[in-house]
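tool_call: predict_structure(chain=1)
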Amino acid sequence: MKQRKPRIGVLAVGRSTFDVEYAQTVFESAWSGLQGLDAELVGAPRVHYEADAALAAFAELAAADVDLLLLLQVTFTDASVCAEIAGKLTVPLVLWTFPEARTGGRLRLNSFCGVNLAAHTLSRKGKSLENVHGAPDSKEALQQVQDAATAAAIVRQLSRARILVVGEHPTGFDACNYRPDEIRARFGVESVTTPVSEFLDSVKALPDSVADAAYARRAGDFKNLGEMDPVATRKTLKAYAALKSRADTEGFDGIAVRCWPEFFTEYGCAACGAIALMNEDQRPGGCEADVFGVISSLVLQAASGQGVFNTDLVDIDPVGDSVVFWHCGQAPLEMADPDVEPRATIHSNRKLPLLSEFPLKPGRITLCRITQGDGKLRMMLSGGEMLKAPLAFSGTSGVARLDIHAEDYRTRLLEAGMEHHSSLAYGEFRPVLRRVARYLDLEVLEFA
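tool_result:
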């Protein structure tokens, strides 16, 4: 589920008893600012002063497949138009209101009072709106609109997502449990399950040549690839070719794979290298058949526009205030420290290839997990800095200093009943993700 440009439906309303000339100036400035966003604007650049005209314009926007409706409350209006729109709307509603100078003279817009009236009316109907309040040229207000539109687009993309699930989660890994009907009802995500043995049989039936392209790709990435067991290495790359083929032909946005023990015991290779390549293709993978891990990665990937790493928290240092995020060897190559040459390696426990090995690069990170902890769906968010540090553990791992102290993070993680997997991406994406949670009706559990 790759990042895409959101479509914003724009509708401006006002009342002609206020300062129409000034209202037009405010609207034109706001429209100019909106044109600078990384979004497609849908709607006519005009203020509608009559209810019938505003509702007719909304009808056109409702048919235009927009991700979000932005209603510019240029002057005060009563709540009737907003209430009628909200009753028919199937995407998030954001109202932008505008401050005005305290001159001691005429109240020229009275913009905010209009949205206050609308919010009350909607609340009595069990609906809500989101308010952005700022000058028409306010960078902060425009960024809030951008974040809202990006979040709304992510939610719509998620509602059309498909996940391939290869096998069931291992015994005792309740953190990877999920219900297909629940994820379909709550997020719109469709899951398709294939037994792991059936998938591996299909891989075995493929000619070895299907691994040629992936082998050439990895040979360019890892200078020591030739040192790996060639038979087992090609098995991992054949598994990748099979996963990629199914994703391409059946429209899967992500995959959740029961990576052990069958990949080792029934086929003779590690699934990690296949998942790493899928992560690099921006079709994120979750080991241990972690479907909610994949959903979390899809959301974070769409917010960041980057490859995402589904990690374990494996070490906490309260004295040095750092933690280690690790997972066998499946981080996307773009996360490698540029000063360290990435290598091919074997699984630390099963001693079979193919895995990636490198320390994670320094930089700002965001952590995200849609969690079932405490028996309810929430979104966990956290942030911090990945530090420049030697490889902490074999495979792909990184040492991070979070915005919350390491000991507090450990304590809160366990108190909240969090899963052992979190999705990690480089950059700061919590403003967008908080809105994603709001639009998905998820409580935000923020460790900061």
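agent: The mean pLDDT is 97. Proceeding to next step.
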